[in-house]
Description:
Layout: H1 2-14, E1 23-26, E2 29-33, E3 40-41, H2 68-73, E4 78-82, E5 88-92, H3 95-105, H4 118-130, H5 139-151, E6 158-160, H6 165-170, H7 172-176, E7 183-185, H8 196-200, E8 211-213, H9 221-234, E9 243-245, H10 254-259, E10 268-270, H11 279-290, E11 293-295, H12 314-327, H13 335-343, H14 361-366, E12 370-372, H15 390-415, H16 419-426
Parallel strand pairs: 6-7, 7-8, 8-9, 9-10
Antiparallel strand pairs: 1-2, 2-3, 4-5, 10-12, 11-12
Amino acid sequence: QSWSRGMSYCLHSESHLDTGPIYVRENGKLHVVNQGAGGVQNVTPKARPFSLFSRSFSVELCMNREDDRARRQRTDHFIFTYTKEGNLRYSAKSLFSLVLGYISDNVDHIDSLIGFPEQIAEKLFSAAEARQKFTEPVTGLRALQKFTEAYGSLVLCSLCLRNRYLVISEKLEEIKSFRELTCLDLSCCKLGDEHELLEHLTKEALSSVKRLLLKDNSLSDAGLRRMTAPVRVLKKGLENLLVLDLSCNPKITDVGIGYLLSFKKLNCLDISGTGLKDVDAVIKRLQMQIGLVHSKVPLKEFDHSNCKTEGWAEQTVLQWEQAIMEARKPQDNLRSRVATLHFYGKTHRIEEVVKCTRVEPETKASGNLQFYKENIQNCHLPLKKEVAGSHELKNNKKRALAEQETERTSKQKHLCLTVEDWDLLNTY
């Protein structure tokens, strides 16, 4: 009776919830309950396929579904190559390269790199640079500051921004983030006395600058007074300066030269093209107080050919310049409009790129005013050696022509290839 009550309960509950057939074992045999008739049949149970999900259920494979943009920018994790037979072969990238790529994609989220090995940091910087992470307006500056705080001169030890005033105006904060620079070339940028970058030169971050080139920057005595104030008063700032170029700044007078006497370590100075009134008095003053001797020939230190951008961020500076030039390209289409205005007699102001010439009119008027210290051997070497006489000049020309002839004949000999050589080249 208890078994029949349990079966009737199960049959009654099946009307509300269909749980499938019910099997009952009795006397060593397995019975199935017939739900329709309410009885029990002695049948062998059939194998019924087991399904975990219903027929309407579908499975979708999702990878990085929460960040589709990062998935699109993520490079492939495999390297595809071809075998000698021409078959496609792929191999997985190393875990190091995968982690390096992921960190470089999120380099602006790094908290600090202080104490991190510089060998790995250089590879990380190159990977982020290849992704142009440092050209982004906000995140690029934040990422660059993490590297400069930790590695200083390794990121950039020399920076040449000659005639690149657009880069200075667009990337001023990034330029100010560089630390421990030893050489800085700001020639022909027309910065003036009030520019923020000139004020940054007096900060402790650039106290390591040894070579500073400020040719043709519209500087005056007020700018020199402001730039030398930390050295004169606090003995800080540009106290380690060795080479200084102030040429082609007509507003600098004898008063401004007096401020330069605080640079006791100065070895080379160029003040050609300045507005000096008493040149002889300035020459004597520089020689008596800081030991600088007037040079009769141009010095190689002011040739501007040795100043280059060097460091990890060398390509980054080029990327900044290219991005700025690309942004200014649409303005080239205005040339036709300017030509039309000229045709109809209308005037139009054209802003041309200021080019820094090697010899300025002011330089010719005042002469060459370059100074050096006699006890420094590498500073006062002339830019061009004087020729002893016309006879020696003729002999040098003959030697140069003879060397060119021998070089030309030697090239012709190397270009004569045999049949065996051509067969060897064709095998490659």
